[in-house]
Specification:
Helix content is 78%, strand content 0%.
Amino acid sequence: MRLRLTPRDDRFFPMFVEAAQNLVSATELMGEFLHVSSNRDKLAVQLREHEHAGDAVTHRVIHELNSTFVTPFDREDIYQLITQLDDVMDAIEAAADFAVLVELETLPAEMGRQVDLLQRAARCTVAAMGRLATMDDLASFWIEINRLENEADQVYRGLLSRLFSGTYEALTVLKLKQVADDLEEAADAFEHVANVVQTIAVKES
């Protein structure tokens, strides 16, 4: 990490950790949501509460960004980091909300794999947010997130192949594809988070 000759405001780091921890909790709830015997209405409400909590953290970061003179790194990177974390939460909540709205029942096994990868990405992300202040071993974070996102792409393509194989009715295909798309969007957003972290690390080196 480069030597700093000016003070910086470190209040942002706990908020990044808070946003990432919210994603860990949300992906765990999404894992429960996949089970057809679960109370999906209740879980969807809980995920909506997590989405609101994510919004609240995002708003706090942006407020601090607009009122703080000295920031730990570039303002644009801070904004991009918190908004990409928020995008992950939005996509996860959207998947659950839509599944409840259209009354989907049994979900394909591939969606379980999608959520498993999101859970792993969330745990990696919260660990990386805890190291962001020191810039310690962040390369392993974006490498692993990239690997998980590539695996998520493969799972998503395999799921699309099955959805369009003729196994499902046309309307069910459209419903399931929307949920799959939202989960894939969450995986992409995790990669965007990792890309921002990599950009920050390069600037700080």
